[in-house]
Amino acid sequence: MKDAPAPSKVELAKEGSNFLRGTVEQTLADPTTSGFAGDDLQVLKFHGIYQQENRDLRRQATEKTHTFMIRAAIPAGILTARQYLQLDAIAERYGNANLRVTTRQGLQYHGVLKGDMKATIAAMNEELVTTLAACGDIERNLMACPAPAGAVHRMVQELAREIARDLQPASRAYHEIWLDEEKIVSTEPEEEPFYGERYLPRKFKAGIAIDTDNCVDIYTYDGGLIALTDGNIVRGFNLVVGGGQGMTHNKPDTFAALAQPLGFVPVEHAVEAMRTVVAVFRDFGNRSDRRHARLKYLLAEWGIERFRQEFQERVTWKLGDPVELPRAEAHDHLGKQPQGDGNFYYGLFIQSGRLEGAYRAAVRQIVTELQPGVRLTGQQNLLLTDLTQEGVERLEVLLRAAGVALPHELSGAVRHSMACPALPTCGLALAESERAIPEVLRELEAVLTHLGLRDVPVSVRMTGCPNGCARPYTADVAFVGRSLGLYNVYVGGRFAGDRLSDLFAADVKQSELVEVLKPLLMRWRWERQVGEGLGDFYQRLHGDRPARQTLTGKEQVVA
Ligand code: SF4
Predict the structure, then answer these.
(1) What is the pLDDT of the chain when averaged over all its residues?
(2) What distances in angstroms separate CA 468 from CA 73, 103, 322, one per listed residue?
(3) Are 80 and 367 in contact (CB under 8 A)?
(4) Which residues pair with 336 in a beta bridge?
């Protein structure tokens, strides 16, 4: 019999961490160091923390100055005005005076110093916002459409909270380290009943979409539920599994994949269904090679039938056949929208999710004055809810005074753009993303305007590496960092999020990213059918190819 492969170092770090404690508390108390080392770097992630350094300063510094990214997990992205104002105040006090809305409805600070970590996390928890399980090998922030748009939306948002609660780790480490809660003295060994001492083989991303709106990009996650609706009623869910964006350049055995339908789940079993998918991953995911440790690789090895069988054996009810669905769109929820109760919500576009300067101040003033609900979208934007007509008018006055463009004034490419943070904070970045996308968008906007296509929606995404945090491979157009100043260009996804793109051009200089797209954009201008998006047009040009289920790290240029 073949020996089982040795567990990866991270597995041993988790196992040896005493249920997520490591030596974090001791290092926090040590004034002689600005950072953590060794296994604690893995442990910290489970607490929603990444140790980072400013890579811009790397060459000048004689020694590393560590700073920390601290991320809140906010199921369905729902906050009260009071919570938002507290998070905003923390950014000023302990972060670098900005808030970053993540692509998964979380909110993160960059630039927090070690000495301020505890105060930051305690202040967040004061308003019941946690950072626990926002990162790490665990079920991450549970996404759901955040729009306050009626009974179906309320139901999926509540379900997101319920699943998040169900899959929280049991360890008290977080409360002991950050919130000074008393250590429970017991003769019984501590247990982590669901996760065990090694937690998951890697991260697990999950979300809930609605059959009419895929704003959360459900096919890109390890596990997803799609609510099947009948008017105001949810009659069950399609369960989809095995999606994921990350891959590695030039490694053909790594790939982005779309989640596949596993079956129909009755409403009363939705929480158990998600827990069961996570449990299968926990028990069978790869624990020796982290590059292959996502659920999509288990799916590729097993095939969907074996996965379904394993799932079925673990539950007492019958998984039905998945329901065929018409293609859903992905609403951006921007601008003034009716809530259905006489009030309105208003979606604000936040470029790359980075809220800072006059814009952040204006949002703070709006939230202070109008006390709306605040919700984060999966497209890095903010919704302000429960507004009267007068509230909407006041909000627009304040935004204009701060020089903020209103959503209807944005071009179709800017409005639907996303970018990951990349340099200078992300340790994995190969190229710029958030800092580069404004210039790329300006050039793209100029070309599209010239072609009379300024207002046509185009989803544009940029990432600093192929890990794909801004979900590049389901967009109309994406730029994925190869090395400093160099990108691969992908084309051919679509708003419904149910199709992967193709590698359109490899190793393109940043200054030529738009130039390389120009011939395609011109053909799109002249040959597009009524309402045809860029990704759809591109795929029609190559209509003889089967749709992709995966996109590997070593593709040939197709165009
Ligand atoms: Fe960092 Fe890559 Fe994720 Fe961007 S996509 S934030 S560069 S890991």
Answers:
(1) 95
(2) 19, 11, 28
(3) no
(4) 346
Contact 346, 367 (CB under 8 A): no
DSSP 459-479: -EEEESSTT-TT-GGGSSEEE
Both tokens assigned to 467: 């890990």
Which atom of ligand 1 is found nearest the CA of 470?
5
Interior CA angle at 167 toward 166 and 168, to 5°? 100
Between CA 281 and CA 293, with CA 287 as vertex, the angle to 5 degrees is 60
CA torsion angle 484 485 491 497 (round to 10): 50
In contact, 238 and 325? CB cutoff 8 Å = yes
pTM: 0.96
CB neighbour burial string for 183-192, b if at least 16 within 10 angstroms, e if fewer: eeeeeeeeee
- What is the tally of helices (H) and strands (E) in the chain? 16, 22
Residue 421 Cα: closest atom of ligand 1: 6
Which burial class, exposed, middle or buried, applies to 86 when counting CB atoms under 10 A from its CB (0-12, 13-18, 19+)?
Answer: middle
Digit-coded pLDDT (tens) for 307-323? 999 999 999 999 999 99
CB of 276 within 6 A of ligand 1: the answer is: no
Contact (CB, 8 A) for 143 and 77: yes
The Cα–Cα gap between 255 and 51 comes to: 27
Q: Report pLDDT digits (tens) over 215-242.
A: 999 999 999 999 999 999 999 999 999 9
Average pLDDT over every residue of 413-436: 96
Q: Residue 534: which of 462, 478, 479, 487 has the closest Cα?
A: 478
Beta carbon of 169 within 6 Å of any ligand 1 atom: no
Ligand 1 mutation target, pool 245, 254, 380, 463, most atoms within 8 A of CB: 463
Q: Sign (positive/negative) of CA torsion 419, 425, 431, 437? A: positive
Measured distance CA(498)–CA(207) in Å, rounded: 15
How far is Cα 115 from Cα 31, in angstroms, rounded to an integer? 8
Expressed in angstroms and rounded, the spacing between residue 276 Cα and the centre of ligand 1 is 29
